[in-house]
Amino acid sequence: MINIPTEQLLHWLTDPGQRTFWGFVASAYLLALIWALFNWQERAHFCLRWLKADYWWNPSTRQDYAIILINALLFALMGTATLLLILYVANAVYELLGLLFKPLFLADLHGTISLILFALILILADDLTRYALHRALHWRWLWPIHRFHHNAAVLTPFTFLRVHPLEKLLYQWRTAFVYGGISGSYFFLFGNHAQPMTIFGISASVLLFNLLGANLRHSQVPIQYGKAEQWFISPAQHQHHHSVDGSRYNFGSMLAIWDRMFSSWRDGTHRAELPSHNIPLTDQLLLRYKKTS
Ligand SMILES: [Zn+2]
Ligand SMILES: [Zn+2]
Question: How far apart are the first and last CA of the chain?
Fold first, then answer.
């Protein structure tokens, strides 16, 4: 019998490295409250809804919690697998570059600037490949996998984790190839690891992203970013992506530039209804969809 500790099953709530860490959900709510204070008459109901039990506990969110636990169980066993794959890819890229090119002996240039550049390239590559994978997941036979995420009839911060295990696996492979590929290239160029700065750069951008209300994307709070709306995916933009009419728009994760470059962007003023159906969890897991649903 496999013994999985409770903290591993609940790490999505207790680990500050996760977007759905309770502290980030609380800070998102604080942000929503501040936003609502500017126009309490019209916006209060968005915040008050979070205080009702049926917002967190309904047929749609019960499916969210079920898949979170299923994924935690499935992936607990391969917790270090992504890390190993990153190292494997990094090593393979390093070896491949060594076969193709002569060493560049850039070790002297390794320093703060090269590390900042590296962190920037990694952030951009990370965001672009998220966009590309998300867009691909809306295409033909990949759609039934991603549809699991879109079947949510109520958006709460935890809907972020409502993903089919196959989608989670695809995103882990993406992480391994991007992080491994870029780290391997850096090591080839400079003969040095870039971890400390990268970790700082990535953590800082993730922290900022969480502070800017990343958790409000999966909620009913339609915050827009004003002038920054065309640079960053706001909660309202992602909510539009979840709507029945908006799923061909706003595939982006952090930056809105990819959507604008590839003509799939709509600003957050567009509102539309979320899907209302509730398909049994087993049908969604087995990718069994009737033609009409
Ligand atoms: Zn989508
Ligand atoms: Zn979503």
Answer: 39
